[in-house]
Amino acid sequence: MHPAYVTEQFEQLAMEAGLPPIRLHDLRHGAATILLRAGHDMKVVQETLGLSSITIASDTYTSVLPDLARESAEDAAAIIVNAGKRRQRPRALKPVPPGDGNPRGTTEAAS
């Protein structure tokens, strides 16, 4: 099929469906944006669109989602904060075995 014919058919179908004016090529950008928004790796975007390099994908599509970098930073910060919380948990107190010189049978932390 001739590219112009495909474009005309797409535009006609989009108009009949009541969609806003959109170029056929815009669907490609939309697909990349949706993949990135869904959390897929840039390599997946590159391969899905058939781009020759991941650099082209990265240069073109990361600017489409300015909040992606902020969300990534927040996700990384949450991992660090949660790791710190795990380290700060109080250790469970262990009972002291009988006959160790502690007549009251209290735990290690209390002695």
Write up what this structure looks like:
- The protein has helices at residues 3-16, 24-37, 42-49, 54-61, 66-87.
- With 111 residues, it is mostly helical.
- The chain starts with a helix and ends in a 24-residue tail after the last helix.
- The mean pLDDT is 80.
User: Sheet bearing the most strands, described?
Assistant: none
Radius of gyration (Å): 29 Å
Uncertain ranges:
none
State the helix count.
5
General shape: elongated
SSE series: HHHHH
Bin the strand percentage.
under 5%
Strand segment count: 0
Helical content (DSSP H or I, runs of 4+)? 55-70%
CA-CA gap between termini: 86 Å
- Helix and strand content put the structural class at mainly alpha
**Average of per-residue pLDDT values:** 80
Question: Helix and strand layout, with pairings?
Answer:
Blueprint (H helix, E strand, L loop, with lengths): L2 H14 L7 H14 L4 H8 L4 H8 L4 H22 L24
Helix pairs in contact: 2-3, 3-4
Question: What descriptors fit this protein?
Answer:
mainly alpha, elongated, 111 residues
Brief characterization of the structure:
The chain has 111 residues and is mainly α. It has helices at 3-16, 24-37, 42-49, 54-61, 66-87. The longest helix has 22 residues, at 66-87.
